[in-house]
Amino acid sequence: MPYRIFVRKEAEQDIRDSLDYYKRITPKLGHDFISRMDVTIAQVALNPFLYQLVHRDIRRALLKQFPIGLYYKVLGDKVVTLAVMDSRRSPQNWRKRN
Question: Which UniProt keywords apply (predicted)?
Fold first, then answer.
């Protein structure tokens, strides 16, 4: 049974910001970003422990074809998404949201 996914408001805004950025490059890239995001979220829901621990109990799932990481923690039967951001950025940006 898949875990329930909860996306914090900050992570929702991260997704919107990334989508806007990629859509400005080309609409197709924006579409590809959302498709990859949907696939990654579905994979995390099925097996959240598959992905690497990056800080204490926070894990990161990387999107294919994009330098974006989905940062989350597992709480019981829930997965709480903390941030969705460029994995090359400083870890302090998502650690503050813990």
Answer: Toxin-antitoxin system
Give all domains of the chain, ordered by start, each with its CATH number: 4-95 (3.30.2310.20)
What span, in angstroms and rounded, lies between the C-alpha atoms of 70 and 15? 10
- Give dist(CA 11, CA 14) in Å, integer: 5
Please answer whether residues 17 and 67 qualify as being in contact, where contact means their C-beta atoms are separated by less than 8 angstroms: no
Is residue 50 within 8 Å of 43, Cβ to Cβ? yes
pTM of the model: 0.89
* CB-CB neighbours of 71 under 10 Å: 26
Average pLDDT along the chain, 98 residues, taken 10 residues at a time:
93 96 96 97 96 93 95 96 84 59
Task: Give the sheet arrangement for strand 68-75, strand by strand.
Answer: 4-7, 78-86, 68-75, 58-62, 52-55
Task: List phi, psi (to 5°) of 97.
Answer: -90, -5
